[in-house]
Design a protein that fits this description.
The chain is an alpha+beta fold and 325 residues long. It has two domains: 183 residues, B-lactam Antibiotic, Isopenicillin N Synthase, Chain (Jelly Rolls, Sandwich); 97 residues, no CATH class. 28% of the residues lie in helices and 23% in strands. It has seven helices and 16 strands. β3 and β4 form a beta hairpin. The radius of gyration is 21 Å and the shape is globular. The two termini are 16 Å apart.
Amino acid sequence: MRLSRPFFQLPVLFDVARLQAEVAALPTQAWVSHPDSLPGNSAARLISAGGGETDSVYGQMLPTPWFADMPYLSQVLAGFGVVWGRSRLMRLAPGAAVPEHADINYHWHTRVRLHVPIFTWPEVRFHCDGQSVHMAEGEAWIFDNWRPHHVENKASAERIHLVADTTGTAAFWRFACGQAPPRGEWRTLAWDPEIRPELLTEGDQRSPVMPAAEVQLLVEDLRAELTVATDAAEARTRAVRFGLLLESFVFDWRQLCALHGVGGRARPDFLRLAGAVREAAKPLADGLVMRTNNVSALLVLEKRVLQHLVEDDAAPRAGRTSGEG
């Protein structure tokens, strides 16, 4: 999800002592290594596909057994009134970091990640597109993860954030990105032992074939960001041809959807079209990048569009995100 600036702090605060008590009570076995094996990075899964020990971002999202013993964290998430996708506690060891990256995967086209720091220190810095902030305990933040970002923990103790993914309601976006009142007027969500909220969690978003309207949306977004790494006539020509290739692909995908529907019939025809576009794009894509984050246009085409067009029963149109903080 692209935002108008790198960071937004939401005008709400949380009970730090209660957050810390619930997190400290987690057993050691709740913590698992980072899905990309980043040193010093670990996580405890709170909402996951099927409520299981998985990092998939597809499937029916459900609370995990670890989350059952965290009623205040449940109140925190429920208080935003949105549907939550994969959500976890993310731990960064002393001296550890999350390398710079941009989140270009399909999952992130319509989602933003909420951060609620639970254990942190002034030496922990979150960097995004040249700006840097310290997210303090009990605060709530979102950031533009399409832009390059990284995290550093230069403190002598571990950092733990609650991180939760959502597409957000209209009310959420007004609250998150609107004009905030003075901090002294912000509400603090108090712990209420009588409340056991029912969380809204994402249903299974998979479909056998991606509908033509969604393909068009993804491709138009990519084309709007397309630029050349080096301004030269030959590169500009290839950029035009790359854009026309994608435009033609949308027309042809729409025709296949009109002929076969999106229920999975004639999968080989859809796969052949995707494969043909993949091969035709390769010789055109050298030096073509995304304007905002300088990521290869071919890589974005692959990860945001082509990998997710047709669900494969053996390897679902899914996958985890990369380089998370």
